[in-house]
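no rush on this but wanted to send it before i forget. what follows is a protein written twice so to speak, once as letters and once as structure tokens for the fold. mainly i need to know what kind of three dimensional shape the backbone takes. thanks a lot i owe you, the record is right below.
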Amino acid sequence: MQNDLYGISRWGENLIGILPNGNICLHDPLDENSEGVDLPAIIHSLRRRGINTPVLLRVSNFLEYKIRSINESFQNAIKENEYQGRYLGVFPIKVNQQAHVVERVVKYGSEYDFGLEVGSKAELLLALSQNLSPKSLIICNGFKDSEFVRLSLLSTKLGLRSILVLESVRELDLIIRVSKELGISPELGVRVKLTNSVSGKWAATSGDRSSFGLTVDQVVGIIERLKSEEMLDCLILQHSHLGSQVPNVIEIRQFVQEASRLFIEIQRMGANLEFLDLGGGLGVDYTGEKTSSMNSMNYSLAEYCTNVVETVKFEMEEAQQKHPCIVTESGRACVAQSSILLFSVLESTEFDSVEEITGEEGDHPALESLIGISENLCGENLLEVLNDATYYRGELRSFFRRGQISLPELARGEKSFQFILGKIRKILSEQEVVNEELLAKIKGMADIYHCNFSLFQSLPDVWAIDQLHPIVPLSRLHEKPDRNAILCDITCDSDGRIDRFVLEDGISNCLPVHSIKEDVPYYLGAFFVGAYQETLGDLHNLFGDTNVVTIRLGKNGSFELLDEVEGDTIFEVLSYVEYEPKRLLETFKAHAEKAVEQNRMSLDELKELTSTYKDSLRGYTYYESD
């Protein structure tokens, strides 16, 4: 069993495991006694329902568990530190706007008065339609026009608590005007830029160079303006944002300390603040390294909550201030782990061979030398042989470019190199101690596994910001992988590839995989893709949304299918980019009729071609097996 090869025990957080049959399984974190649910068996069950890969699998148990964990960890920290305020979390809708996700966040968070954060009118409309707890907050960030402000203010008549967070000085004039027109006092927050910056991918957007928020002198001006309007009592929340996926707990403590000091000073200027909104930042350990690196974090959820509560309490008691209600916007930590992208390998391009090439009369001397190398191959000279083979292959390629050898000779040289590489890999697999330089060179010659998904649609952060998601074969994990590969998607773009992978011993530039067996599907899973990936997807090569299913893990290895959303059809995707599919069909049929008139096509062929065109318009944008 290859349990540790992919580091599952490190990053899986007891959500992901391996069954004795070598299949990946999903564990219900809400039930310690539940059996693991076989993930390939889920795929098989979905296929029998007509739901094919690629498919995005949402696991409702994982989502519920994370929402419970965040809220209960804060409750525990509050109790242990005798903190006198409470905690209220909100989910930033921008992290995952999909209806089934937001609705379940609200459902699972209702007992904790978990609220929503919005940054646009569309998100506000979405939030206002949800069945939120009366004590939940709707935090309104982002730039706001009069319609946005009007919606927020009028929603208070529904018993909702919608707080307008000031992002700019201009917004205050607008809010004052609209509130007076409606005769509704607003509940206001102020977003303040802090001086503390953080490490990680979003370092450039933290500190006083952050895109949103007010400088301290602007905050003072707003307080003075509210005083003059006799509206200072409307200012009830201070918001500051540290950044997404903060890797270092020390930076979190420093940030909370500065935010608390600002809260205290704003209070001293006469504001009656109730809520200290510390924004996002709570990370996800995608690699399981537990370090302050780009895709990891050096703290646990419990440690995060304790650091926040302890720091706020200390600063407030030093200033003899009342403990405020702590608010966080931990979207990534809520939803990232709840979704898995499942996809199949369509074929592989391998760069070694078991076919031995023999010499022929008249072979070029360089080809003779390359073919003869394998005769001297042994466990002690692998690196030397690889270097020699690489040299002679390079020479043959140069001779071909200069017209000095034929294409068949070049082909035999390439096959000979592949045979030598295959023998080296076989000997390496049997050795306990491996030359690191040789290993690095062999990994650089990894296979290419061509997979049925679009990187740009389903994993855009992998392409755009080098985000790491654990990727693992879903079966045969009781077998030792015999290949190393990089993954390519089915878009016609050289950027549609993944060449960084999470393994037990660190980050690798290739993924250990198994040889593909004919007529036996080989599935891979990209884990923890619930944050941002669906929202940021792009129609590269007109590949649309994948099929999406939501399941509930049950007893005895069972599961329940809760929701199914069919992936985009070609008809729908063409509509997104301003084509009229019906008109396309009419134009196509006209071309086909013309071909019949010119005797280039029979009527039977016309019928078959037109039928195929129509079926394709209704079909999935991804590769479909016969």
